[in-house]
Design brief:
By secondary structure, the chain is mainly β. The protein is about 10% helix and about 35% strand. The strands form 3 sheets. It has a 9-stranded antiparallel beta sheet, with no helix packed on it. Strands 1, 3, 4, 6, 11, 12, 13 and 19 form an 8-stranded antiparallel beta sheet that branches.
Length: about 260
Amino acid sequence: MPLFLVKRHIRIISSFQDPTVYGASWTSKANNDGMLYFDGQPTGLGTILNDHDVLFMGYNPPPFPINDFTFNVTCIASNDNSFIGSGQNEFWPRLWELDRQSFRWTYTRGNSSGGHGEQFVRISWAENTVPYGTNTNITLTRSGSSISLYLDGALTPYAITNYSYTNSYQELPVPPHVFPVASLPVYNYGLMIGSMQNDGGSMQRFWSYQGYIDNIAVFTNCLSSNQVYQLYRELQNEAPTTLLGQTTLTVRAFIDKYLHGPAS
């Protein structure tokens, strides 16, 4: 069951709180119903969230933390920053984020002496598989420690590497290279789409995405390869699916209600 779906013409009812939209806007780009555009630039409004294009999903969105999952996003990317992610307010922070060419999860924070002890896992795919400026659907699934990647509905190779930081700011690969079996949480900066806030103190860095996003969804189960292909085809054709009809959490209803009026 998906936690939420950003989609303009599929109405999905949810008891989850409405997200707060900062700056991001619907455009007629590429897909039939348009896409959300994020400019990736500070707005100059002077506050942390207001200064970036972002959909803020809340600090404790249920049912995070999650175990098995499926992430889906359609993108036309102009940089490598986060489609969706969550970070912790601390130096050398814990965080996770999905972007154009990787999924990263820092599950153990580093100390203030150069990040020593930080541990993270990175799932990455070849640079040219999701080119800048190209409409691509990315689906990432997890079942326990098993990961699958799909691009435009097709199973795609990837690399997985576990890293540990040293005092010399070096990322050292540390086998065995497997995805942690721990639950994926939302950290105390909250869950964000289009930007991802991380780091502590006065830094409070943002990784601000530039480009277009559509069809961004999180499921609390690992979709099969057939289900991933079904999801991709029906989202591309703007057709509601049985997969999407089993929703508990969505951004969609908010976007229709507050930006476009009732959904069709």
